[in-house]
Amino acid sequence: MILIAGGAFQGKLHFACELFDRKRNNEEQAVQPVIADGAACTYEEAASADILNHFHDYIRRFPDLFADPAAFGQEWEEKCPDQILVTNELGYGVVPLDKEDRRWREQCGRVCTAIAGRCNEVYRVVCGIGVKLK
């Protein structure tokens, strides 16, 4: 599993697609990645995608899945070992006034931390440039 994080509109999805292509460059035919949008996809679509974009929105939509971040991280790694997760970093901005938004922000941080610990690779993308953290 690979985690890509960064600010909004920093080129994370483009970087994920390039990374997907590099990982599969030994194949004879170019393969387009299956991309699920966490803001709108079902659980099945998310689990079967090569790239799960807007993972932070997926967490907002299904908060009960993430009650135990460590357990979710283990389950998702077993289910989707080759998936690329793309998420916005939410902890660097203004603290939301709304209690539910603060809870979601905290949950995203905890889930992404648990997943990053299990991932083979973790990247941070700024201005379209991916920096490998792990």
Largest sheet, spatial ordering of strands? 2-3-4-1-5-6
Structural domain count: 1
Structural class from helices and strands? alpha/beta
What is the count of helical runs?
5
Low-confidence stretches are none
CATH topology: Rossmann fold
Give the CATH level 1 class: Alpha Beta
Q: Taking Cα atoms only, what radius of gyration do you get, to the nearest Å?
A: 14 Å
Compute the separation of the termini in Å. Answer: 12 Å
Task: Describe the model.
There is one protein chain. The mean pLDDT is 91. This protein has five helices and six strands. α4 crosses α5 (99-118). Strands 2-3-4-1-5-6 form a six-stranded mixed beta sheet, sandwiched between helices. It is an alpha/beta fold. The protein has one domain (2-132): Rossmann fold.
Give a brief outline of the structure.
With 134 residues, the chain is of the alpha/beta class. It is built from 5 helices and 6 strands; from the N terminus they run βαβαβααβαββ. The chain has a 6-stranded mixed beta sheet with strand order 2-3-4-1-5-6, sandwiched between helices.
Keywords:
134 residues, alpha/beta, Rossmann fold, 6-stranded mixed β-sheet, 5 helices
List the helices and strands and how they pair.
Elements: E1 2-6, H1 12-23, E2 35-37, H2 43-48, E3 51-53, H3 55-61, H4 69-79, E4 84-88, H5 99-118, E5 121-126, E6 129-132
Parallel strand pairs: 1-4, 1-5, 2-3, 3-4
Antiparallel strand pairs: 5-6
Helix pairs in contact: 4-5
